[in-house]
Amino acid sequence: MDGLAGYILRRLLFLPLTLLVVSFATFYITRWGPGDPVSVYSGQYRDEEAFARVRHRYGLDKPVIEQYGIYVQRLVLHGDFGVSFRFRDRSIPDVIGPKIWVSARLGVYAFILTFLIGIPAGVFAAVKQGSWLDPFVISVFLFFQSIPVLVMVPVLVLVFAAKLHWLPPGGFDGVFSTSMILPTVALSLPGIAGVARLARATTLGTLNEDFVRTARAKGLDEMTIMTRHIARNSLVPVMTTVIGLSLVGLIEGALFTETLLGIPGIGRFMFESVNGRDYNVILAVVLMGTTAFVFANLLVDLALIVIDPRVRAGRGAR
Amino acid sequence: MSSKLTLGIVGVAAALIIGLAVILVVVAGGGGDKKDTSATTGSGTPAASATKAGADFGGKAASGELRLRGEDPLFLDPAVAQDAGSAVYIVEIFSGLVRLDKDLKIQPDVAESWDASADGKTLTFHLNKKATFQDGRPVTTDDIKYSFERALSPDTGSVTSENFLGDIVGAKEVSRGRSKVISGLKVIDDSTLSITLDAAKPYFLYKLAYPTAFIVDRRQIEANPKRWTQKPNGTGPYKLKEWKLGEKITLEAYDNHHLGAPKLKTVRYDLTGGSSLVAYEDGDIDITGIGLDDLDRIQDPADKLHKEYTQTPRQSIDYLGFNTNVPPFDDPLVRQAFALAVDRKKIAEVVLKGAIPVATGILAPGVPGYSADDKTYPFDPQKAKDLLAQSKYAGKLPEITLAESGAGATVGPTTEAIVQFWKDNLGVDVKIQQAESGTFFQDIDNGRYQMFHLGWIMDYPDPEDVLDILFYSKSKQNNTRYNNPAIDAKLEAARTEADTEKRLTIYQDVEKQLIKDAVWVPMFFDTTHALVKPYVKGFEFPPVIIERFRDVEVTR
User: Fold this and answer.
1) Taking CB atoms and an 8 Å cutoff, what residues of chain B touch A105?
2) Residue closest to B214 by CA, chosen among B496, B462, B540, B545
3) Which of A312, B34, B179, B547 is the most exposed place for a label (fewest CB within 10 A)?
4) pTM score
5) What pLDDT, in 10s, does the model give residues A47-77?
């Protein structure tokens, strides 16, 4: 385990560096664009002199590099993410915490549904290779993948909310309510095809492996072969390539789905924050996303070690 | 063996998810959801739902509770907030020396009465001795002085304070950081206060009814300077009882209010979003606005909702503005030609389905000086062509771009129609440039456009609030760069004209002149379309943002 701990430590040592680069880039780019929070916030009141006074009050008139220095200093020394220009009486974690929480729970649902359908569908298609069922299953999910979310969400609302009245048309009443069904479906449908195709390809790869033939020759029942010999080996690439990225997708939230269905998540909020030039909020969300990305990748790599004996063995031998 | 392995895989997946959730909670500083913990099932599938949408509001239907859809206010500091989303809450929680009633007339609020000096420059206010903050503390003139000086102080960061309080002698000294006290504001005793203006301005009282001039509690702010607005202590008829970000806001009547206890006990805002019309039809909320798509159906007398339908004019105007400094719109003939070439009635009927009226001038209905007779250029394509031919840009028009605020994806059908009219009737191809609001406003401030599509929402019902602010040549908000000494002289005279009738005549004259000169093409006035449940009595949609719950009765 010594090697493993060292490995984790090495990976984590890069995190502060990554955050520094990402934060500077974001800091600079947001201030580079046209408009600024004071001007946007002021709506129809256009008074450049008053704007200048308010910019001075919030230190927005200082050179960008100086503003960045102050930001980093406050963040590192006091854990202070600065002021949200739109929500001036709240700390930034207070503002975005609930939004991320909403998106994350929605994302976990979508994530589970994607894999719950995607993996069995892929394995099924692989086993049925050569029959019409294989292309049929994959095509159905490809069809859903190719529908833009902007089209799919209104159609789902029209059918299940407006016509059938089975589900609420939007809103957010907590995770254990029917209002979660539409967004979960809308978020998972496009991703299922990817998971299914990958699961199909890797399963096909393992189906022809020697050890599978050996298992069959030994007379093991088909279920044991599927779960123990095939699934175990074919799931590894699915985990590595898809899950790591999907996990990050969860916290980034889903801009269109959240906006169209009135879900107060972080995707919709980011959009509003960019439009409102709420610099510190944008930066805080980007930093959290970066941190989560680093951790998600680390977790996936660690999970691989647990799942795949070859990875474990390889490390032990070194 | 095999089941053990399957368990292993599931376990890893679960660990991944839980691990991520833990990171999120730590990083984001938590953020719980009550409904979550109250749920007993942990299966993680959406189908396990037990809570039904709206169950929160259904059961406890106590009379005197009004249920609405709303949005999170950004910031409940009356001195700073200027967005409509925050203002609708602020006008209930806070109040000022005077207020606007439903007919937009000035009425006493914290000030019981006031008198003006002979020259009209000094106003002496006598406070209502019953006026208290919502924690019971009596309001004194020191509170007014503190509130005004705080609003103007550079530390407060308000962009509007100079606009609304800048007429007081010495106010600009405070806003520019040269003084801490407003020299023109004198506390005479605990309930008497005098305010001296730089000139006798009849519209100044309107400004005092605007949130920037509302009264805040010094003790509360000094005790908790950063977070006081989360539980503000105002002088308005409603207390902010509860505010859960993104979930709900509850306002509760302040029974000891100096103008009498409000009739309506509770106002509950659902902040979770979603279709408000569906929520209304399901009986989860009592009032909803109506979008253009649903308007046809509800305006049909046969529709079951038609009886609950109401429409009210709003004091705002949608217009096309020209930059009178740059070619080709520095030539009034070109501006007039563009105004004559657009059939606004047709756009209103076909594109907007008659939802909002065509503007008859610059002053909206309800603004003093408004008249129903049409002062704008009629649709006359032939005359438009002739004028364009007479202009100095005849035959050599530069490329023209219309700027508007928008996300950039699609151009609104109204704008599309306007541009089509110019193409058909003048043979001019006008390009449309969409910019999101940040960029759009900055371009307008800097005069980087030829022509723009914009709106103006009245802050108070006085013609000064649009004509002087937008067309006076030295005004900071003169976005058309219009410079006409004759108009300037009239606007200056109107500011201090004591005779109301004469004053309004001047403004009407200015309005006619501006339209004739085609500085704007006034397009449409605005209308609120809404549904109100029959058991809600006394609710009205005011044409500007003022308090509206005090006299409402809900007999559900």
Assistant:
1) 36
2) B545
3) B34
4) 0.83
5) 889 999 999 999 999 999 999 999 999 999 9
